[in-house]
Structures are given as C-alpha cells and as structure tokens.
Amino acid sequence: METDRVIPQHVAIIMDGNGRWAKAKGLPRNMGHAQGARVVERILEDADHMGIRYLTVYAFSTENWSRPDPEVKALMNLLRTYMKTSLAKCAKNNVCIRVIGDKSRLDEDLQRAIAGLEEATKENTGIHFQIAINYGGRDEIVRGVRALGERIAAGELRPEEITEQMIAASIDTAGLPDPDLLIRTCGEERISNFLLWQGAYTELYFTQAAWPDFTKEELERAIDAYNRRERRYGGLKG
Ligand code: FPP
Questions:
Q1: What is the CA angle 10-118-19, rounded to 5?
Q2: Which residue, judged by its Cα, is nearest atom 24 of ligand 1?
C-alpha cells in the first residue's frame, strides 16, 4: 500500500562495485569512480524528493589508502571537484553537508574546501548529506573515546559518568539520528567498518547492482523492502 509506506528518516549507503562495473565494460577503474560520483549527485536529489531527511555515503574508508597511489589520487580529486562544484547546487537545493571521518590526513586544500562547504551550508534546512572520507567506524570510536579520556584526565569527568549518549555525542555523527536503513551495492553482505556504533538497530539491504548502475528505482526497492520488515527493538515492535 503505497500511501502507508514509511520513508526512512536516515539512509546510509556503502557504494560498492565501481571497479567491477568499469572492468565489465573494459574501462579503467577510475571511470567507475567517476560514474559513481555522478550517481551520488542524482541519488542525493532523488532521496531529497522522496522525503529522506539524512543521507550518508561511504566515499573513502581508512583502509582505502592501501589502494594503488593513482587510484587514491583519482578518488581524492573526485572528492575535491565535488566539494568545489557542489556549493552552488547545495545553496539552490538547501542541502546541509557534513564530512565524517578523520579529516586531518586529507590534503590541506581539501580540508579547507570541506570546512568552507560545511560552514556555508550549516543553516540549510533541506536534506542532510554526510560524506564519509577517511572514515572507519573503529577509528571514529577510538577518536571519540580519546576525547572523553582527555576530559577524564583534566578532571572534568569521572569514568562512571560516561553514558551511551556521551559516546554518541563524541563521535563524528554527533547530533544526527542513527540510520534506519543501510544499503550496500554489488553483492557483498558486510558492514566493512561503516557506522558501527550508529548501526546497532539499522535494517540492512543488499543489492546486486553495482553503484554506478544504482538508480532511483533501486532506492525505491530498498525502501519497499524496509517497509516489509517487522521493526523490532529488543522485543517490542517499533
Ligand atoms: C567502491 O568501489 C567505491 C569506493 C571505494 C569509492 C566510492 C566513491 C565514489 C562513488 C565517488 C566519489 C564520491 C562522492 C561523494 C562524490 P570499489 O572500487 O571497491 O569497487 P570494486 O569492489 O568493484 O573493486
């Protein structure tokens, strides 16, 4: 029943399969990433039109640095271009952008572009778009726990005062709702260190489609599947 359909408030996506998509077409891997970046822009608009309030995508993991240098450079350049060209679009579409992950390892010009984009869009009231760059769920928890540890060392906090809410507020997604639905493309059925803390109750949806082939129809199918699931939180139907 279309009218009863619940639109998840927060959708997260592991965009997998750019390389396989390119290989299947006899193209260099980087063409897969470039096409993937175009799909990101389209899906952001589709998600916004569908009423999704938060979209979080995994663009570059802490493990991705171990890829061949030219591929890392190409991915960073795609992200650089995205940061530089998306400002006008974000202003027009009222998108609020946040980058999650450890930004300190990124080139300084990219860090500056990210800071500028976050600052310029922070009051926007449309869809919240989180891009995970140099992101790892474990790394994020380590950084958050260290920050709390510093407060303990400074005498501002006692260990027994630490709560789940405090940890949630100490990690990169502070202030954001947890994802309701996590989509992973291209057949793998793993979390791969994405949103480990936040994903405790997230519904998972896996599709065979490679990310560059992902469409609005695929997103609709994921939301339909989400609606068919019984939503349970520790025994009580949510
Ligand atoms: C996984 O495919 C994808 C990535 C590691 C990068 C995702 C990046 C983009 C879609 C482009 C940039 C993003 C933005 C936000 C503009 P893979 O290379 O692991 O594919 P494979 O498993 O088939 O080799």
A1: 65
A2: 19
